[in-house]
Design a protein that fits this description.
five-stranded parallel beta sheet; Cobalt-precorrin-4 Transmethylase, domain 1; single chain; alpha/beta; Methyltransferase, Cobalt-precorrin-4 Transmethylase, Domain 2
Length: about 190
């Protein structure tokens, strides 16, 4: 099986990903992942909502939005599966904010233990890192701002919405006056 990152938005497929998609016998992916790769798909493509990949054929190409190893489907890969990276929201956020990736701690809140996420955010900020956060519906920009305020931390909070889409939006505020998000598809940078 190949798990192929299709990028964080339109026009972000790598040449390696395009080749894997064009040469696939059968493709599986989310509706959004299939949409991002549709112009290169030459075979059957099936939308999946259950991500237990073990039931898929060994020669399947599975599309993962962003990069499969950043809160993506790469965590479900077996030792013999091939993973083709994609352009991630992390890379896009760093480019938009002119930030070096190594200045950031990367944290995923999505479907994680939020008590541990909160603790890790505070530890990383205490260690002098900036934080790149993939939010969860229960831990978004307002919860991040509240965590910072309750911890006495005055930091900038940037939200990056719908990166690489025509309606992309980047906005920055503070813990005291956080930016507002108008999309469910965003990431957060705390600096």
């Amino acid at each position: 099986m190949k798990i192929v990152g299709v990028g964080g938005g339109p026009d972000l497929l790598t040449q390696e990903a395009i080749s894997a998609i064009q040469n696939a016998r059968i493709i599986f992916g989310s509706k959004r992942a299939i949409e991002l790769a549709k112009e290169h798909i030459k075979c059957e493509a099936h939308e999946i909502t259950d991500y237990s990949l073990r039931s898929l054929p060994d020669d399947a190409v599975v599309l993962s939005t962003g990069d499969p190893m950043l809160s993506g489907l790469g965590k479900f890969a077996g030792k013999k599966d091939e993973i083709i990276p994609g352009i991630s929201s992390l890379q896009l956020a760093c480019a938009r904010l002119h930030m070096e990736i190594d200045s950031l701690a990367v944290i995923t809140a999505h479907s994680r233990d939020l008590a541990l996420v909160r603790k890790r955010v505070l530890v990383e900020l205490g260690n002098g890192k900036k934080v790149f956060l993939i939010p969860d519906p229960a831990f978004g920009v307002n919860e991040v701002a509240e965590l910072l305020r309750s911890s006495g931390l005055s930091r900038k909070i940037s939200i990056l919405e719908r990166l690489s889409y025509p309606d992309e939006r980047v906005s920055t505020g503070t813990a005291e006056q956080p930016p507002s998000s108008g999309s469910e598809m965003y990431c957060i940078v705390i600096s």
